[in-house]
Amino acid sequence: MRFDNLRMALVAAAVLALGGCSQEPKAIRAEDYRTVPVKLPNGKEIRAEQMINRQDMLNGMMFREALPENRGMLFYHGKEGYYGYWMYQVKVPLDLIWLDKGKKIVQIVHKAPPCPGPRQQCPSYGGAFPASFVLEVPAGTAAANGLKPGMLLDF
């Protein structure tokens, strides 16, 4: 009889332990598909669309009407290089943040204005330091969160 009590206690413990593992996974929201959380040094989190393939990187924010607060675009260049960005056919002002391979901020351009064109009249920004990533966020985000070169972002 003692063996049966021990066996029942072990079965009950196993059931309770496995019960915690059976939680339903959360469904991903459509607006969060292909995004990654980017944690700023002050703890604030921005949800950034991941721009990895060439066509997505070329299009970026072109033709979009808005970039909501706490959202962004994170461009993955794959290797460090000097990457200049421009605002051709971008409709909203942005902060542009270049990061090295260690995810340390190396350069920030605040409030880059939209440039409807023509293409030849749109200036290029940044690219003065080797970078592997570029984060685009709504204009004013970098200053509002105290971002400066040398700070680390987490993603």
Verbal overview:
The protein contains three helices and eight strands; from the N terminus they run αββαββββββα. The protein has helices at 2-19, 54-59, 141-144; strands at residues 35-39, 45-51, 71-81, 85-86, 94-99, 105-112, 124-125, 131-138. The protein has one domain (27-144): Sandwich (Jelly Rolls), CATH 2.60.120.1140. The strands form two sheets. Strands 1-2-3-8-5-6 form a six-stranded mixed sheet. The chain has a two-stranded antiparallel ribbon with strand order 4-7. It is of the alpha+beta class and 155 residues long.
Helices, strands, pairings?
Blueprint: H1 2-19, E1 35-39, E2 45-51, H2 54-59, E3 71-81, E4 85-86, E5 94-99, E6 105-112, E7 124-125, E8 131-138, H3 141-144
Parallel strand pairs: 2-3
Antiparallel strand pairs: 1-2, 3-8, 4-7, 5-6, 5-8
Which structural class fits the helix and strand makeup? alpha+beta
Biggest sheet character: 6 strands, mixed
Which ranges are low-confidence, i.e. pLDDT below 50, for 5 or more consecutive residues? Answer: 9-19
Specify the number of helices.
Answer: 3
CATH homologous superfamily descriptor:
Protein of unknown function DUF192
The CATH class, by name, is: Mainly Beta
Reported CATH architecture: Sandwich
How would you describe the shape?
A: globular
Q: CATH topology, anyone? A: Jelly Rolls
Rg result: 23 Å
Order of helices and strands: HEEHEEEEEEH
Span between N and C termini? 56 Å
Strand order in space, largest sheet:
1-2-3-8-5-6
